[in-house]
Amino acid sequence: MYSGPESSRLYALRRFVDVYPAIAKPDGHVRFNSKLWTTTFVLILYFGMTNVMIWGLSGTALDVFSGFRAIMAGASGTIMHLGIGPIVTGSIIMQLFAGAKIIRLDLQDSDDKALYQGVQKLLVLIMIPVESIPQTYGFLDPSGDLIANYGLGWANAVIVAQLFAGSYLVFLLDELVSKWGIGSGISLFIAAGVAQSTFVGTLSPLSTNGGAYTIQNPPAGTLPMIFYLFRTATNSELVANNGFEMMLLTHVNPIIALVSSVIVFIVVAYAESSKLELPLTHGKVRGQRGQYPIRLVYASNIPVILMAALLANINMFTLLFWSHPTLSKFPILGSNGWWSQSHLIGVFEPGQSSPSDGLAWYTSMVSGVGSWLLPILDQTGDIYGHSIWQILLHVVVYVTIMTLGSMVFAKFWIETTNMGAKDVAKQIERTGMQIPGFRKNPKVLEKILDRYIPPVTSFSGAFVGFLAAGADLLGTVGNATGTGLLLAVGIILRTYEQIQKEQAMEMHPMLRQFFGAE
Prior knowledge:
Elements: H1 14-19, H2 32-49, H3 69-72, H4 85-99, H5 110-136, H6 144-150, H7 152-180, H8 185-203, H9 222-232, H10 235-240, H11 243-250, H12 255-273, E1 275-282, E2 289-295, H13 302-323, H14 342-345, E3 347-348, E4 355-357, H15 359-363, H16 373-378, H17 388-416, H18 421-430, E5 433-434, H19 442-449, H20 453-474, H21 482-507, H22 511-515
Antiparallel strand pairs: 1-2, 1-5, 3-4
Helix pairs in contact: 2-7, 2-8, 4-5, 4-13, 4-17, 5-7, 6-7, 8-21, 12-21, 13-17, 17-20, 18-19, 20-21
């Protein structure tokens, strides 16, 4: 039992936090070129790791995160199979605990904040086996040769060890980018994966089902598919083979998905550039003026990442309780357990990782018009036999959860990242700036910022959540998902601005004080 003087029992973990292996912070300013090369190196290493297959894995492995792969980063069947899942899950748990005051830490205090970040790292280390062990013993089956040579127990342990190593490397790479590179490693990995999927989905020349091109088997990429069909097929042939419908709606990368992707890009770019600017003047230098921008998307895209990761974990654990050999026997929750209620929680078809019914289905991602709009227009229901009202309820529930959940996570994120009114007031006060017509007092400045930052934070969280859900409804090329594309566009724009800021600080060192850089 902890009985120390500090306010939180988490200080009992301080000895573990102090010895936890981590990337060392730079002693001083890191030059822009060094940051750029570090970020590039990490990105190349990430793509390399996504091509390192898990040794000894059978060909019947099931990807639990298949529907969230663009958001979770990584690649199925590789050492990056878990992607950023453990990192984001650890962050979600800590933010929920901090927001609910379960852990009594003042994140404005440097010691408490350092402890918070350290415990979050420990939690990530715990979440890696928590996510890898159930998947290995339920869905990532070792090959027959590996079992024959080492036995089932050791074969599973080999798979878990590779997943652990890959996930821990991802965690270290994220820290490396955050401390020595540009931006965030997690954001970099998401943007890289989504960009790759979008590029392939738009321009892939490979046929949809393999083999030679035909009207029913055109190129998989949207643009090659359009060019091929219009160049080789007549209008009558397209009509006879439902070619126009395929191009517009039913192709693996239809035109509507490309249009949706373009719309998301334009809307996100506009939202990222929209901001409210508070006028500032220097208290001692007359004529020195500036502005403090409060963005429309103030909380960035992090709330959507956290919300999507939460839904991915819900999907994973409901799948485990439905089909895992051991967890399926769990009382109430398990499909084969005592007084099983799993049909209400989540139902999965054999060999599928996406729910087909139950609460998990209503909260699952709505992927493209084929899963909701076409069944409604045809008045036939979907492939799982859901009625029209159930499909509509699914859409409403998913959009509502994404919107409200992102709003909540936006508030938590602002409070834990020094972006609240109190922290911003201190940052402005340190630069010697003040709002014209008001006393130079951090309390006064904080009171003014309180009029803007909390409501903008709530709106930005709801906005990005609603936009991500809306993009999911329309679908995107490359199966990047609307959420993934929204994140990628926002990340790319923010990274570009971060590069501009780094270059400005390189040329004008005094700006580092304003931005709080080393």
